[in-house]
Design a protein that fits this description.
The protein is an alpha+beta fold and 79 residues long. It is 39% helix and 28% strand. A hairpin with a 5-residue loop joins strand 1 and strand 2. The protein is globular, with a radius of gyration of 11 Å.
Length: 79
């Protein structure tokens, strides 16, 4: 299980597994519960590199980062 401490988001940490380049067991600590559960459900079994490519650089409101952007950074760190 990988854990990534986020910066600049409501969620404080992201946990996930990478198996053969695929995302599994994705969860967020804190943040917008329903939206992050939906994100985790949508990404389950997805290609991690492709997910990171799609999520990288997304902001949230006036913030230059988001939970998705932080997930992209986490994926890139652990790939």
């Amino acid at each position: 299980m990988h854990e990534y401490k986020t910066s600049g988001t409501c969620a404080s940490a992201i946990r996930f597994e990478l198996n053969d380049g695929k995302i599994s067991s994705l969860s967020f600590e804190g943040g917008c519960d329903g939206n992050l559960k939906a994100l985790a459900a949508l990404l389950e079994g997805s290609d991690a590199a492709e997910a990171a490519k799609k999520l990288k650089g997304l902001g949230c409101g006036a913030n230059s980062t988001s939970c998705g952007d932080q997930l992209a950074k986490a994926i890139e760190k652990f790939l």
